[in-house]
């Protein structure tokens, strides 16, 4: 095989039930260029490695396994697979998600080849939980394209498995360094923000992947306390990049959003002191005490991109 134009990367741990579907979605891609497939397998305790190895034996010219004798954790696993990618472009698909459009890679690469000022392309997606499927999660939404740093700090609207980006951009960011330094529990959101500060980002309305929600996933297999920790990390990331990229105009918006969502956790956690703190903030910010309560009916604990997407709450309830 010639040097691949695209490196597809998957990080996986205990995805025995899902990894075959993930791998098949990548192998089914129809392209006029070569691509490689890097799988970072982090010493799963189930049969994930055996399944991955079977595919690697069958497709030795496409699949490379990155592993070690001991579990290294998600951040290190992610970084070592990043470093193994040699293509001009890198596409992502975690081991419990899967691609559904066989022309996904071709469409995204064609766009970036024709538009070198864009460094990252993402797409519409579907969600699945058990037997319930929500097709075209972003249907009808006019997502921003181009210079979208401010919009992305306001809220993450990028699904990881839908992303294809330039490899030189990915390597220059070295996202594992700030993740470790700040002890963030999520790595995709800061990566998109860092990319948006350096390049234009394009959104395609094509539904190309399916995002899976299940109780054992790293993000959705959480209790309320775990969700609360992810919530705090999300806002730590927002504040970090508001400061780093001097987006001071976003602070009032982010503070209002933070206290609005914090109030919901206060109610879930039955924390009266936290609730009163939030209400005092709303009163002081002239938003009025009634506003947070009006939002409660729109709340759902399911949030596939760790962004409380109120405008799509009816769709979300279909998959909860």
Summarize the structure.
With 320 residues, the chain is of the alpha/beta class. The chain has 13 helices and nine strands.
Structural features, described:
- Pfam families: Glycos_transf_2.
- Residues 7-132 form the Glycosyltransferase 2-like domain.
- This is Glycosyltransferase.
- It comes from Marinifilum caeruleilacunae.
- The chain is an alpha/beta fold and 320 residues long.
- It has 2 domains: 6-212, Spore Coat Polysaccharide Biosynthesis Protein SpsA, Chain A, CATH 3.90.550; 224-301, no CATH class.
- It is 43% helix and 17% strand.
- It contains 13 helices and 9 strands.
- The chain has helices at residues 19-27, 48-58, 74-84, 104-114, 149-154, 167-173, 176-182, 188-196, 224-244, 251-268, 272-284, 290-296, 313-319, and strands at residues 6-12, 35-41, 63-66, 89-92, 98-99, 118-129, 132-134, 164-166, 200-212.
- Strands 1, 2, 3, 4, 5, 6, 7, 8 and 9 form a 9-stranded mixed beta sheet that branches.
- Residues 286-320 have low confidence and may be disordered.
């Amino acid at each position: 095989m010639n040097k691949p134009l695209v490196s597809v990367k998957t990080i996986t741990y205990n995805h025995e039930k899902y990894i075959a579907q993930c791998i098949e979605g990548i192998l089914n891609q129809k392209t006029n260029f070569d691509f490689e497939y890097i799988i970072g397998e982090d010493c799963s305790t189930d049969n994930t490695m055996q399944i991955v190895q079977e595919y690697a034996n069958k497709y030795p010219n496409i699949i490379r396994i990155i592993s070690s004798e001991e579990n290294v954790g998600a951040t290190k696993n992610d970084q070592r697979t990043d470093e193994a990618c040699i293509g001009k472009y890198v596409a992502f698909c975690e081991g419990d998600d899967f691609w559904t459009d066989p022309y996904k890679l071709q469409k995204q690469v064609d766009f970036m080849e024709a538009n070198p000022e864009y460094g990252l392309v993402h797409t519409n997606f579907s969600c699945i939980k058990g037997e319930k499927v929500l097709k075209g999660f972003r249907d009808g939404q006019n997502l921003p394209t181009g210079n979208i740093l401010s919009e992305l700090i306001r809220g993450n609207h990028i699904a990881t498995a839908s992303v294809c980006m330039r490899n030189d951009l990915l390597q220059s960011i070295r996202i594992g360094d700030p993740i470790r330094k700040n002890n963030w529990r999520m790595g995709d959101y800061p990566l998109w923000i860092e990319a948006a500060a350096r390049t234009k980002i394009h959104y395609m309305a094509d539904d190309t992947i399916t995002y899976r929600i299940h109780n054992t996933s790293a993000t959705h297999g959480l209790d309320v306390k775990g969700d609360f920790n992810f919530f705090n990390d999300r806002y730590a990331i927002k504040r970090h990049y508001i400061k780093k990229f001097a987006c001071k105009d976003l602070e009032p918006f982010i503070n209002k959003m933070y206290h609005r969502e914090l109030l919901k956790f206060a109610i879930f956690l039955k924390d009266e002191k936290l609730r009163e703190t939030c209400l005092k903030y709303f009163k002081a910010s002239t938003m009025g005490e009634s506003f947070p309560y009006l939002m409660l009916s729109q709340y759902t604990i399911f949030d596939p991109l760790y962004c409380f997407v109120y405008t799509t709450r009816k769709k979300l309830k279909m998959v909860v």
